[in-house]
Amino acid sequence: MKAEKGNNLEKELQKMLIAIHPADPCVAETALKRWNSIAKPLHSLGKLEKDIIQIAGMTGDPNVHLDKKALLVMCADNGVVEEGVTQTGQEVTAIVAENFLTGNTSAAIMCRQAGVDLFPVDIGMVTDTKVPDVKIRYGTANFVKEPAMTRGEAVRAILTGIQIARDKKKEGYQILCIGEMGIGNTTTSSAVASVLLGKEPEELTGRGAGLDDSGLQKKIQAICTGIEKHHPRADDPVDVLAKVGGLDIAGMAGICLGGAIEHIPVMLDGFISDVAALLAVHLCPAVKDYLLISHVSKEPGAGMVLRELTAEKASDVHGMNLGMCLGEGTGAVAYLPVLELGLSVYQEMSTFAENQIEDYKDYTKENPAKDSPEKTEANIGGTPCCM
Ligand SMILES: Cc1cc2ncn([C@H]3O[C@H](COP(=O)(O)O)[C@@H](O)[C@H]3O)c2cc1C
Ligand SMILES: O=C(O)c1cccnc1
Predict the structure, then answer these.
(1) Coiled-coil stretches, from where to where (predicted)?
(2) ipTM value for the complex
């Protein structure tokens, strides 16, 4: 009976994955043409231009609007905190989660300033609070001793995230930022990233919310033990999530998938959200088209994960580099006003033709004839196009 229910959930997830299609490269090209017509040096707004082109391709509309913005904060606890991998106890998860409701967290204050609506969600805290509750279970198990959760719970948490994204689209939101609150979640994220990227935990595990050298060694040891004990399969993202992941990561991965299903952009935050996005991309590569990078977290694994999420080379991961590593969605919210400045130029600025300036030539490329911007950037969002 239980196995049958699990199979049905997996089938439902498969149905969702099939519903994801790449962004529309023709619409992206229309947006590129609009940028190239604006009376300013070509490509001079860099990432801001690329992100708006990408959003046009995702939504299928070159008239990009980001008026209604949401931050979805997945709150959950992680059993692995028993191993002494964090500086604070997991009671802090519930305190901070409730503070989202009173507007008294870093992300809440930034949301107020940036005009972003904030939605904390309890997807698996050990404590019951006033935070809206879609709890899958009361915290995960300590993965050093047993798998963090069952496969069925992992799938259910992903499906919950998908549904949250779909509901927000129905409510009219045009962009979803993702964030998390869960003491111990840089340990689970490092474990998941280590398996999915095939890298040693030492290479990508950092100090999270603050650890001394001996704490960091305990954290690496816990991750090594969990991976050795449960043998998560790198080619099965749900297996990795269930064995060494967390419910907040699962929920955020679901939101990435839900954003892709609904053709709306999902703005990533720091390392933990990057890992959730990586999981989503491993489940369905086309999700990449719907992800926007805000910043590169100070956690050592962040750059490695982001490199996998972009087609670009290591040194070319475009994201704000502010030395931030707070979580909660703060980096995602911090980038939105910058992106909106770019969007206002895209929407309002006059063209070369209107100013009677001859069309600009692209001298930034080594070989403009062979490597014109149309040829290289029109491919944003997948297969080449187009009429
Ligand atoms: C007071 C406080 C507020 C936070 N807000 C976000 N985080 C961040 O730190 C946690 C991850 O770090 P680690 O894996 O080391 O526990 C997450 O909850 C993350 O959102 C916080 C952490 C603390 C202590
Ligand atoms: O990069 C992050 O998301 C992060 C890093 C440390 C602590 N909390 C979040």
Answers:
(1) none
(2) 0.99
Q: Which domain holds residue 114?
A: 65-342
Percentage of the chain beyond pLDDT 70 is 91
> Looking at the whole model, is its pTM more than 0.80?
yes
- Residue pair 275/305 in contact (Cβ under 8 Å)? The answer is yes
Which residue out of 85, 110, 121, 186 has the highest number of ligand 1 atoms within 8 Å of its CB and is therefore the one to mutate? 186
CA distance 310 to 218: 32
Sign of CA dihedral 267, 269, 272, 275: positive
For ligand 1, atom 3, the nearest C-alpha belongs to: 96
Number of domains the chain is built from: 1
> Residue 322 domain-assigned?
yes
Give 228-257 pLDDT, tens digit per residue.
999 999 999 999 999 999 999 999 999 999
Q: Is the CB of 326 under 6 A from ligand 1?
A: yes
Catalytic annotation, residues: 328
pLDDT of residue 386 exceeding 50: no
CATH for 268:
3.40.50.10210
Q: Is the CB of 297 under 6 A from ligand 2?
A: yes
User: What is the number of the ligand 2 atom nearest to the C-alpha of 297?
Assistant: 1
